[in-house]
Amino acid sequence: xxxxxxxxxxxxxxxxxxxxxxxxxxxxxxxxxxxxxxxxxxxxxxxxxxxxxxxxxxxxxxxxxxxxxxxxxxxxxxxxxxxxxxxxxxxxxxxxxxxxxxxxxxxxxxxxxxxxxxxxxxxxxxxxxxxxxxxxxxxxxxxxxxxxxxxxxxxxxxxxxxxxxxxxxxxxxxxxxxxxxxxxxxxxxxxxxxxxxxxxxxxxxxxxxxxxxxxxxxxxxxxxxxxxxxxxxxxxxxxxxxxxxxxxxxxxxxxxxxxxxxxxxxxxxxxxxxxxxxxxxxxxxxxxxxxxxxxxxxxxxxxxxxxxxxxxxxxxxxxxxxxxxxxxxxxxxxxxxxxxxxxxxxxxxxxxxxxxxxxxxxxxxxxxxxxxxxxxxxxxxxxxxxxxxxxxxxxxxxxxxxxxxxxxxxxxxxxxxxxxxxxxxx
Length: 426
What we know:
- The chain is built from 13 helices and 13 strands.
- It has helices at residues 27-38, 46-59, 70-80, 98-105, 150-160, 211-221, 248-258, 261-279, 316-329, 346-350, 376-384, 398-412, 420-424; strands at 63-67, 88-92, 109-113, 135-141, 163-167, 175-176, 179-180, 187-191, 204-208, 285-286, 294-295, 301-305, 385-388.
- Strands 1-9-8-5-4-2-3 form a 7-stranded mixed sheet, sandwiched between helices.
- α4 links the parallel β2 (88-92) and β3 (109-113).
């Protein structure tokens, strides 16, 4: 007997309050934050210094710089790898906008490469075709917490003498061949904003094992100065710089959450396994993959729909939108993570980031194509996916993951009860 869907007036599968909010806050967080609040340095203070040391130790890096965002850390990486006017940096065609706009921040040109559908990461087999004499670096995005095959990346980088920047903003603790991300590239960036596996509200971390790269990143981080806030400063700008420093209160929150990060990651893995088991064999869905030697951190559990299996022959995004709205009505916290491939975004289509066509009109730049039709795999993914973070995060357990799976199956088993055209618009 068919179940009446919540979107059609039926009882929803997941009651209000069943899914708990992220991140869990306890006495550890309160003690760290209150101690920061009651000390005297609320700018770049003692918690910032300790956060850098502790995160570097946790991840295994020699150097770490705490920043006000993951985007800042990415820009620092581009600058520290000596990417400048007209230089090209390879970026996956599907990611958060910062993975590409950080390139523009330093007057460089992003060159997009399509993704591999199974992993949702950059298609390493398509990178070489995008390399030119102007290519300076590859930004490797470990999307949703699944590492890219770094053996393949380094084979290409070595062949063409390219720098490798790891975008680890979603990938805390993810591993390739038993080694944590952030340890493969010339440098890497992490994010600590609200949705990340380590949340301090906002904030990020730049990491590297190369002292020269570390020093260059510091200059961009603090007004172009050569001395840091913990040293005796001369307040002289030796190069173009920004103000990307973190503050003590945010760093204190980050230090508290770092103490719980390992346990959080284990919970995510257990919950992801439970959801995968619940959804195994479900008609019309592609579940996320975890190839051999790749250890996912399950930042985002991303599902793709196969509309054709339900007889839908129209726009796949319309079908996805309708299904997603019905699942949300059942109480499951799911959403579309990114609804545009990067080359389709206005800033790239217009080629006018700074006005007057810059940086593409720069005398050092060459003509680059951002034709969205050149990235069909990224577009297919964009049109068919939905995902989730909170349902699989602490303090939620496997019971929540299983219930979300049941909500998804309830909708998919009753597709005929949905007005796809009406629900799927917008």
